[in-house]
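Students often ask why inverse folding is considered easier than folding. One informal answer: many sequences map to the same fold, so there is more than one right answer. In these notes we will look at a single instance of the problem. The structure comes first.
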């Protein structure tokens, strides 16, 4: 697998009244050149999952591997990774354009 999630769990705002478990024990792999669609009802964790793929969000526990290397390891070059694993956010217009100059 080129890109792999191993036992990934993610909790938003742990230890607060807003604590929310978004991902539970996710194991998933992507081969180079593969097309994968992730489908699920609103709030099921799709965006949270995707943001793990280039290290924008770090798993609360578990690992994300790119070419067998842990992308959240202290010395891993995440800047270089983001040149290879790109994200388009849910509202691409908001990513590209601002309302004010
Ligand atoms: N910044 C945040 N702080 C706290 N909870 C959050 C945050 N972002 C998402 N959540 C919660 O985590 C869960 C997963 O949200 P996520 O945005 O990953 O779902 P989604 O599948 O992308 O939903 P949608 O189809 O609406 O885009 C939801 O219960 C959501 O309310
Ligand atoms: Mg979403």
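Output (designed amino acids):
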């Amino acid at each position: 697998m080129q890109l792999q999630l191993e036992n990934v769990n993610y909790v938003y705002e742990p230890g607060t009244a807003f604590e929310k478990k978004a991902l539970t024990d996710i194991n998933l792999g992507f081969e180079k050149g593969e097309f994968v669609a992730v489908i699920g009802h609103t709030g099921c964790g799709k965006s949270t999952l995707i943001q793990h793929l280039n290290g924008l969000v770090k798993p609360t526990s578990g690992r994300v591997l790119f070419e067998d290397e842990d992308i959240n390891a202290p010395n891993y070059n995440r800047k270089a990774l983001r040149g290879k694993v790109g994200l388009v956010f849910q509202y691409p217009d908001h990513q590209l354009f601002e309302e004010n100059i």
